[in-house]
Amino acid sequence: MSLSGRFCLRCGKPETLENPLIEGLCLECFLKERSLVRLPDRVALTRCPACGSIYLKGTWLHFSGGVRDALQHYLRALKKPVVSPNLTEIDVEVLGIHKGEAELLVKSCFKGRSAEQRVVIRYEVINRLCPKCLGVKVKDYNAVLQVRFAGSPSRELTNEVVRTLTSDREISGSITDYEELQEGIDVKFSIASVARQAAMHLRNSLGGYLTESWKLHGLVKGKRHSKLFVVLRIPVFTSGDLIDSRGVLLEVLNVKEERVTVRRLSDGKLLNLSIKSLVKDGFRQLSRDDYVTTECLVTEALGREAVMVCEDGTTAKWETARPLKAGDRVSALTYKDVRYIKIR
Known about the structure:
By secondary structure, the protein is of the alpha+beta class. The chain has helices spanning 27-33, 67-77, 131-137, 155-166, 169-174, 192-206, 275-281; strands at residues 21-22, 25-26, 42-47, 54-56, 59-61, 87-98, 101-110, 113-127, 143-150, 175-181, 184-189, 209-220, 223-235, 242-245, 248-256, 259-264, 269-274, 284-285, 292-302, 305-310, 315-319, 329-335, 338-343. The chain is built from 7 helices and 23 strands.
């Protein structure tokens, strides 16, 4: 029974002590029609790539967490206009970030009742040196880490490079300059050994292979002075990707440091390749538009030879590297008019 004689304008539910109305609506209907707070559709997060500090309200705030935590800190610090003065205890939690989009959980309280909404906004990370790190930039450097990508990197991958470099205090403290170029990323270090450490840290995290060289950089007090250049080439593929290496179709299974484990789809054989040789020989990462897949059911199997019926109506016989049995399901993949199988 309604204690006030008021009813929800949307669903007609009467107002009670347990179900108070807000702006003429019950809480459930309010959350369907209105937002708890007014958040920007797009957020530009300015972050120092050297130390991880974020720029907020005209001030650089020291912050050592990742992009997700930095975005959450930024949103919580923003002035968030509420749509009703009856809403209290506003909080924003970043549930996840992916390809420039952030899923948020907005929490509030209305007359003792908790209220939650899921919201998706777009975000962009702008890498800019803070004044402290910019001051370090003018100092001399003794080593350069050149990060180069084998393929076209995503924004997420380049951001991961920044996160990896700024997560270690010793590494970030030695960075004197950071620059994103068309061919990759150049990071200058005041200490050569730390540049090597950073390169190993990135390689262990993202895979790739390293090369080093010393280049003459003038004379200091009559002595030849050289600087260290470390080049890290990072592959853009990850587990599950398909690559064409000199006409051989390979499925990437695992990338670890300077090696990549692949399955050769022509016969199912596992290969452990060096990333250096793979990049040197040349490869092409396949997109979903490059091939067609269909599901198949094994109807007969004798050793490694199996007969399969596929969903596209075709029947085929294949010899596989791993024995199959009747009832097994596999994926058939057609690339450049050649059919391969992928065993689950």
